[in-house]
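The records we work with from here on pair a chain with its fold. These numbers are not coordinates but entries in a learned vocabulary of local backbone shapes. To see the layout at work, look at the sequence and tokens printed below.

. . .
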Amino acid sequence: MPTISAVLPAYNEEKIIADSATSMAATLAGLTDDYEVIVVDDGSRDATRQIVESLSAQNACIRCVNHSVNRGYGAALGTGFAAATKELIFLTDGDKQFDAREVAGFLPHIEEADLVIGYRAPRMDPPMRRFNAWGWNLLVRLLFGYVARDVDCAFKLFRRSILEDVRVESIGATFSAEFLIKARRRGYRFKELQATHFPRTAGKATGAKPSVILRAFRELIVLRLTLSKSLESRGSVERATGSEAR
């Protein structure tokens, strides 16, 4: 029986976070006896933290980890992953735009893959967000080759041990892209499955803010340059080693 940590980043989600966390806990309780739901409150200015702490008092399997200030989506994920203690990590957002019960369909595939990642089809976001997502996925593919059908889909199940090998530097919206790019390059096995997506019913998305977009582009360019330098250094070492051998 697998052990699972569910990580839910949240920012100003007081209207929906209780439903998100409790439905996630109920789903995992039906799949395993050893689970935890980690809600990372990324410096919310509403009652998100207080609501999750109240849930934690009622159910010890629900945990609240807090940032004193808003640090960004990637930073929230990093904090949640670092706090996770179980064999498998399941990632979904705190805004309840996914059906947590579908993790049951992802779980059997972890036997044949190291990461089981979802793609939204159809994606139930406003037209501008869908257009931005299309452009982002295209840019990632142009810079790094094929990574995933839906790089930023917040419905992923993977082995926690991968985090010991894949170090992610991005603290913004580039976190998922960097994680998948590096995991691909290290040879981890991927499985992609469709995940049902719902329109947002509460709260407000922050991914389209200019500051978030600019930081994402900056992080992506830095990642491209860093990986290019790493490949060049590796090539230089291999050429030098080959010359010495001859």
